[in-house]
Request: fold
Amino acid sequence: RIPRGFLAAGRSAGIKRSGRPDLALVVTTDGPAAAAAVFTPNRFAAAPVRLSREVLAASSGWVRAVVSSSGCANAATGPDGDADQRRVGELVAATLGISDEQVLHFSTGIIGTRLPLDRIAAGLEAIAPELAASDAGLEAAASALRTTDTTTKVATVLIDLPRAPGAPGDAGATVPVRVTGIAKGVGMIHPNMATMLSLVLTDATADPALLASILRPVAARTWNQLSVDGDTSTNDTVFLLASGAAGGAPVIAGTPAGSALAAAVEAVARDLARQQAADGEGATCLLTCRVRGGADDADARAVARAVISSSLVKAAAHGKDPNWGRIAGAAGNARVAVATVLEAAGFSPTDAAARAGSQASLDPDLLRIWIAGHLVFDGPAGGPQSFDRTAARADLDAPEILIELELGLGAGTGEAFGCDLTETYVRENSEYTT
Reply:
């Protein structure tokens, strides 16, 4: 599953008291890779977020490595925390023989704590010989991203893209190109132009500008439609890197190859987002809301996001209660995304500013709601519908609960992912630092 042109490894460096894996490194094998990113807009954005922004600007989007530490967010740590994060970059650079301006940073864990630089330094020395162009190396890196995750999250898509003239390998018009993502994050999740921690790698040939044009709208349609608990993190980051090692021709925006690569990145992002929602802290089920018939896609996505973000809907899902009134109430409160997300989704800056935060269009007389396949509300037919509640409760006892809404206002569609709200979530977050 690991795309060509990358090495990966993960291990325990002693950052976590538990001794579980907590240090990951992903490195390019043959020069810098093109890179793009989306980050949290949180005003308390962590040191790795701020430093990675600087790295992308200084390198013009060409990088050699991504380092991740888990167990310490390095957020709200002031100038000392910034210095710590820079030191991590210097340590990576010294270990690999590259510039620290080519190192991107992830960090996750408890806010307000300092990075244990001595342990990270020793961990980097130990992890360097373990770097491998193997699925096992990538799995180890994905495992080391985790904090309260119960599963390692990986997704892969394989596509064919045009071959570069003179590229080595079997003769043919196309080459196989791999897009693979790893991710973590099951709590403090309600993204705003980013996700928890996600790294997507591809061996396609692309420049940073193309990757940015792909990643921003993909994030708007996938990770920005994900909510576990309504809290946006200080560390949310997505990186997309392209090594060019598959031997493909440069991918150009607006071409079939560009569309194929974008679709592959979106498929990986959607898969990872669903895995993250299903593994939400304390979750017993994945909650999916699909909306059609919106005035436009922005409205439909807003309604879907409002439904899966509702604590009342999430609690009802946990209790297997087909309480459609909570769904209707959440849908009626839906607000369109912020301007940056709308721009990423294709709105002009002017239109995005005008629509941002506005109430999504919804007419109760046109609205239809289905829960686990049961039609429970039909506005055109008079509203509440008789349905077999016993059968509905039985159908809600499933790994995934599907809620569907028809708005009857246009051709807009959207979906969102979340999970149920459980007692375990409360217990876990009441004792997070102790």
